[in-house]
User: What shape does this take?
Amino acid sequence: MLLEVRGLRAGYKQGTVLQGVDLDLDSGRVLGLLGRNGVGKSTLVSTLMGLLRPSAGSVTLHGVMLAGRRADVIARSGVALVPQGRRVWANLTVQEHLTLAARRRRSTAWTEQRVIALLPRLDERRGQQAATLSGGEQQMLAIARALLTGPRLMLMDEPSEGLAPAIVEQIAGAITGMRDEGVAVLLVEQDLHLAFSVCSDVAVMDRGVIAHRATTADFRRDPGTAHRLLGVA
Assistant: This one.
């Protein structure tokens, strides 16, 4: 198993958000992390990436303990983040983003040529500053930047947020490409159509814990659980 999370607790000054999360994810699998707003999905991503220090529990990647380590150490271990809101550097060009990301690469699995082949729109925008890109292009750039580090585990927080359906389809293609290359993907997503199209499994968070875990096929055959936990039919 690539990622193993046991009893993970974390929060902020206002209180504990993660109440003891248990989670497993193996290479080449895409796990959709679903749930209503405020149940702890983004907090879990931040904790896994080292942006938030846990108060208890363990996180291991191929048996190496990561819980409580700095974000840069976790990144060098093979974890990459596509954050909610993209967070690209406005004044840098697309090419400058790609060059900087490649310097942090831990393996040669994802070269610039491979990433551009997966996200060809970026090839047309190499000389443009990130601030001049559309929202969809910025999201592609955020994905490319993360891939160029050569991750074993990709954390993606709401990658479809605010994007047109055609761009969401391209994001789905990128996620499928990662999966086919053996990258494990933890996908936080509100767009169920996207989640169901790319995820092998889904986990639903509720009140800071994983309340339900199933294959995507089984979850789609159980509308009662989806309605109870997500409020959808």
About this structure: The radius of gyration is 17 Å. The chain has one domain: 3-230. The longest helix spans residues 165-180.
